[in-house]
Amino acid sequence: MSFKVHAIQDGRLKIEGILDFNTVNLVKKQTIGLFNGPSEIQFDLSAVSQSNSAALALLLEWLKAAQKNQVSLSFSNLPEHLRQLASVYGIEQDLNII
User: Fold this and answer.
1) Which pLDDT score is estimated for 78?
2) Interhelix angle for 24-31 vs 53-68, to 10°?
3) In this predicted structure, what is the pLDDT of residue 1?
4) Helices 53-68 and 80-88: crossing angle, nearest 10°?
5) What are the extents of the domains in the chain?
6) 3-state SS of the chain?
7) How many Å separate Cα 11 from the centre of its chain?
8) Which pLDDT score, from 0 to 100, does residue 37 have?
């Protein structure tokens, strides 16, 4: 595995490593259950070393899970290349980037 999910504190998680076509399904499986409990979740993406459009799809999956479970979702320290992809696809405003 070329990624890790670290719990920092209540509702705050740090994703570390590569988010691409080879890892996003594993990351999704490891994190999707998190939306069943807390009222807020923040993903810190500062340690994401590589990503592509699959990572953006994962962020959208998290957003859909958050909406379904009435969880407030935010993203911090979004890597610039991921922010640019979100902008190109016109979804940057849909992601709560702090």
Assistant:
1) 94
2) 20
3) 57
4) 80
5) 3-94
6) CCEEEEEEECCEEEEEEEECCCCHHHHHHHHHHHHHCCCEEEEEEEEEEEECHHHHHHHHHHHHHHHHCCCEEEEECCCHHHHHHHHHCCCHHHCCEC
7) 13
8) 82
> How do residues 16-32 score in pLDDT, each as one tens digit?
999 999 999 999 999 99
**Least confident span in 1-10, 46-55, 58-67:** 1-10
User: Which CATH fold would you assign to the domain 3-94?
Assistant: Transcription Regulator spoIIAA (3.30.750)
Q: At CA 23, angle to CA 72 and CA 29, rounded to 5?
A: 50
Query: Are 4 and 17 in contact, with CB atoms under 8 Å apart?
Result: yes
Q: Are 38 and 10 in contact (CB under 8 A)?
A: yes
Are 50 and 81 within 8 A, CB to CB? no
- Evaluate whether 78 touches 45 at the Cβ level (below 8 Å): yes
Tokens of 39: 């009222």
What pLDDT shows up at residue 49? 93
